[in-house]
Specification:
c-terminal domain of poly(a) binding protein, two-stranded antiparallel ribbon, elongated
Length: about 300
């Protein structure tokens, strides 16, 4: 196998671990940075009216630099793991490397989503690395037909119970929607991010999209792939029905609620009320923590993890 193929394997396999570590590190740094900005702003106001103290004796300053150091350490650890993985791949037998590349090609054409393909590739690579360590050949590991091996692995992967995995994915989508919605409202109304108020109805829309529609879409995609050996015409139809049905259903539901229950105080509060989703840097830090924590749980409780 040439140098180009070898580098491609290293890149594909290590990307997931590196991205997860980078997301966690970035969440720590951004959250701490935003909080520090808020503290620094408060410090300047207090100093201006004669109540300020030295910035470098503030406990928040110590917390800020500690969190930044943790974030940088996480990135350094991810890079170190990437280098170590590259060394192990270099030591693998050429036939195993070639078999893994073929498996990646099969997986890339499957109905699995990107994160699932990455997870499956990583576990098969671990299987090949263990085979190399024990002196086993490709044939002893996967049999006589690489295509059959790949198909069976993908099929077994796709029919497992993803309910917890999908819930954690929904949480990530919901946090992203809340962030994106807050920033868009802030830009549209010309107010600060911490002053932007999001309608309750929009929050309900995001929640339904994240926790109902998206899991149904992924479930139909996996089911169609397993039943049709990688061909997903019915899955595509199901995805379109679910998506269009959700959008139309929500619009109709809101119209019905507004028409039938307009005299109800609770309904009026829901339709017209707004709330600050991100009222301070602490809220941003909290949402980033939830995002990072859900990513960590997805890795720990993935359906394909033994």
């Amino acid at each position: 196998m040439n140098m180009k193929i070898n580098m491609r394997i290293k890149s594909n396999v290590s990307r997931r671990n590196f991205i997860v570590s980078a997301v966690i590190a970035g969440a720590l740094i951004v959250g701490a940075g935003l909080y520090y900005i808020e503290v620094l702003g408060s410090y300047r106001v207090n100093k201006h009216i004669g109540e300020g103290k030295s910035l470098f004796v503030l406990p928040d300053t110590i917390i800020f630099f500690t969190v930044v150091l943790l974030g940088i350490s996480a990135l350094a650890y991810a890079y170190w793991k990437k280098v170590q993985l590259g060394k192990k791949i270099d030591e693998m037998d050429e036939s195993l490397k070639s078999a893994f590349e073929s498996f990646e090609e099969f997986v890339s054409l499957s109905g699995l989503k990107k994160s699932e393909r990455s997870e499956l590739n990583s576990e098969v690579l671990a299987l090949f690395m263990e085979a190399h360590k024990n002196g086993r050949t490709v044939r002893q590991v996967i049999g006589d037909n690489q295509e059959v091996f790949a198909h069976e692995m993908i099929k077994a992967y796709g029919i497992k119970n993803f309910w917890l995995y999908d819930i954690l994915t929904a949480i990530q989508y919901f946090v992203f929607y809340m962030f994106a919605g807050t920033f868009l409202i802030s830009a549209k109304r010309g107010v600060g991010v911490f002053d932007a108020e999001m309608p309750y109805s929009l929050i309900a829309f995001f929640a339904l999209a994240a926790f109902v529609t998206i899991p149904l879409v992924y479930r139909n995609k996996r089911k169609a792939f397993v039943e049709k050996d990688g061909k997903v015409p019915k899955g595509i139809i199901a995805i379109l029905i679910v998506t269009v049905g959700f959008l139309a259903g929500f619009i109709i539901l809101m119209d019905v609620i507004e028409t039938w229950f307009e005299q109800n105080a609770l309904v009026a509060a829901f339709l017209e009320g707004e709330v600050k989703v991100v009222a301070s840097a602490w809220h941003i830090a909290g949402l980033l923590f939830v995002l990072a924590f859900s990513i960590g749980l997805k890795r720990r409780f993935h359906p394909n993890k033994k």
